[in-house]
């Protein structure tokens, strides 16, 4: 399938036909990784967001009572002189 590189503002882009997106399991708005491999542009669907699941994990840690501070409270030099 042939296409052309199009101007998009200060950048350039390629329209990916809907059948190709469907075959790859992608849709408009999906996060992708884009890079180069052996002189070709490679586009891959990002399967997971970097911090996906952190909220649920934090809730589980708190529910288990394992959310105590590791270093404890500590101040900085001059904190007692600060006026809020």
Describe this structure in words.
The strands form two sheets. A two-stranded antiparallel ribbon has the order 1-2. It has a two-stranded antiparallel sheet with strand order 3-4. The protein contains two helices and four strands; from the N terminus they run ββαββα. The protein has helices at about 20-25, 55-65, and strands at about 5-10, 10-15, 30-35, 40-45. With about 80 residues, it is of the alpha+beta class.
Mean pLDDT: 89
Fill in the CATH topology.
Pemi-like Protein 1, Chain: D
Q: List segments where confidence is low: pLDDT < 50 over at least 5 consecutive residues.
A: none
- H/E series: EEHEEH
Structural class from helices and strands? alpha+beta
Q: Biggest sheet, strands in spatial order?
A: 1-2
- What portion of residues belong to β-strands? 15-25%
Brief description of this entry?
The protein has a single domain (6-66), classed as Pemi-like Protein 1, Chain: D (Ribbon), CATH 2.10.260.10. Helix content is 20%, strand content 21%. The protein has helices spanning 18-24, 54-63; strands spanning 6-8, 11-13, 32-37, 40-45.
Task: Provide key terms for this protein.
84 residues; alpha+beta; Pemi-like Protein 1, Chain: D; two-stranded antiparallel ribbon; 2 helices; 20% helix
């Amino acid at each position: 399938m042939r296409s052309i590189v199009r101007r998009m503002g200060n950048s350039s882009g390629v329209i990916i036909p809907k059948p190709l997106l469907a075959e790859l399991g992608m849709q408009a708005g999906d996060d992708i990784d884009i890079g180069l491999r052996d002189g070709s542009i490679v586009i891959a669907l990002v399967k997971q967001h970097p911090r996906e699941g952190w909220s649920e994990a934090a809730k589980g840690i708190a529910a288990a009572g394992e959310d105590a501070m590791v270093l404890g409270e500590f101040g900085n030099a001059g904190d007692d002189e600060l006026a809020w």
